[in-house]
Amino acid sequence: MIHLQNLEKFYQAGVTKTFVLRRINLEIKEGEFVTIMGPSGAGKSTLLSIIGMLDHAWTGEYHFLEQPVHKLKPRERVELNKKYIGFVFQSYHLLDTLTVYENLDIPLSYRNVKSSERASIVCDTLDRFQIVGKKDLYPNQLSGGQQQLVAVARALVASPKLILADEPTGNLHSEAGRDIMERFKKLNSEGTTIVQVTHSETNAAYSDRIIRLMDGWIVKS
């Protein structure tokens, strides 16, 4: 599903290059549950953003579902993202001007799901995450933990082929965090590919494989 070859990311100031990722060679098969770990500044979130096609400033080769991402225009990458990827951000990235219901509806609208079907899917998702009572609230009316739940629900609402999660349980108490990880594990058992970034060994234990980064290099995969 995901094949990275000699992928690098750096910032340039004059003649000086500061590398964030170095010579990343990585393959993730469809149906895998993979965890990316490493100390702060290792390049974990950057790698996840590149896989999710949110970061376009890198070099090397990236194939996603046999599509050569490195050869695609930014607009084409965005379309791939919308069609196949659900992203759980560490800082939520909910749209402040939309209600919880509307935030969940957005990913479905990207996939051209009919409005009647969208309403049914959103209501089912609200029920599964026990946030029906929050559907008409705006993100700034929710606690951090509630925003995190909505962010996870939004990532899952359109049943994406790939879920990318950056510290998905970081703002949740242990029981809610465990519930999210169990949901991920169930989705993975049904065929969804999951790549998560976490500092939690407990969360990492849910995955099939751990990739460890250090100073932008893969030191274990």
Describe the structure in your own words.
The chain has 221 residues and is an alpha/beta fold. It has one domain (2-220): P-loop containing nucleotide triphosphate hydrolases (Rossmann fold), CATH 3.40.50.300. The protein has 7 helices and 10 strands. The strands form 2 sheets. Strands 6-7-8-3-9-10 form a 6-stranded mixed beta sheet, sandwiched between helices. A 4-stranded antiparallel beta sheet has the order 2-1-4-5. A hairpin with a 2-residue loop joins β1 and β2 (16-28). The longest helix has 16 residues, at 174-189. It is globular and about 55 Å long. The chain starts with a strand and ends with a strand.
Number of contiguous helices: 7
Structural class: alpha/beta
Strand % is 25-35%
> What general form does the structure show?
globular
- Helical coverage, percent range: 25-40%
The largest beta-sheet arranges its strands as: 6-7-8-3-9-10
Query: What is the succession of H and E elements?
Result: EEEHEEHEHHHEHEHEE
Please state the average pLDDT score.
93
The total tally of domains equals 1
